[in-house]
Amino acid sequence: MSEDQTRAISIIAFIGSVFSPWYRWSGRKDPQNHVCINVATYGPGGRFTMTDRGRSALRLTRDSITVGPSSMRWDGNHLIIDINEMGAPPLITPVRGRVTLRPTGLTAVEMPLTEDAAHIWRPFAPTAYIDVDLAARGWKWSGHGYFDANFGTRALEEDFSTWSWGRFPTKGGSTCFYDAERLDGSVLNSAVFFGEDGQHEIAALQPKTRLKRSLWAVRRETRADTGYRPKQVMNMLDAPFYSRAMVQTQLGGEETTGVYEALDLRRFRSPLLKPILAVRVPRRASWRF
Length: 289
Prior knowledge:
Layout: E1 8-15, H1 21-25, E2 35-42, E3 48-49, E4 52-53, E5 58-61, E6 64-67, E7 70-74, E8 79-86, E9 94-103, E10 111-112, E11 119-134, E12 140-152, E13 160-170, E14 173-182, E15 187-195, E16 200-202, E17 208-211, E18 220-223, E19 231-239, E20 242-251, E21 254-264, H2 265-268, H3 273-280, E22 283-284
């Protein structure tokens, strides 16, 4: 998020692009043949890019991932992301530039999201700063950042009905919430505070509080102090099964604005959704470096 909270950016590298219809139609047997660096910018001139690419586009080293024309690399202190993508319809224009993420500290946390650890959350740098420099007017700014990863050996919709996640800057670091309903009827309710040095502790679990539904009527709840009503500050990403937004809430008496996501995997299971997604997620099977 930019310091003035008028712009934001989300960048996700996928090996096995979990939301790609092409990966689903392939039977999800070859994740390295469905790779992607998804870039979404929010605010004036925002763009969305998510190209599903084949294995010829993937290059991996210990400290880097390259997917076609875009890459991420860790230089020991910073995550440097070079972006060269094309926006999805209807705004088919280039999205190019560099984003540098500067963690204040790194964690050693790995949290299983299911009892058999088929899904794992790995928050590398819950508190960080970012410098954004894209080739578009108004898209050179600095702000607050976050860096994590999720790993899984099964499709999300095989284990979960819904989930929501939130990361909010709080005094001395950041607080993250993970709430999920599993298909077996069990639930995940977790709150973790991460200090700026990367140390962590279990945080207070404020009551779930209803947010207004998204434009696609996705149900949304986040955590807030009793009696406080959180509100959406910026709509970031709106899909039939997914909502990402900048949200203001109050935690332990501290008002804070962070990024919130809600996912309805019951909707995502629908085969009718996949052709719609294919319009926004083009497939490019071949690539030459």
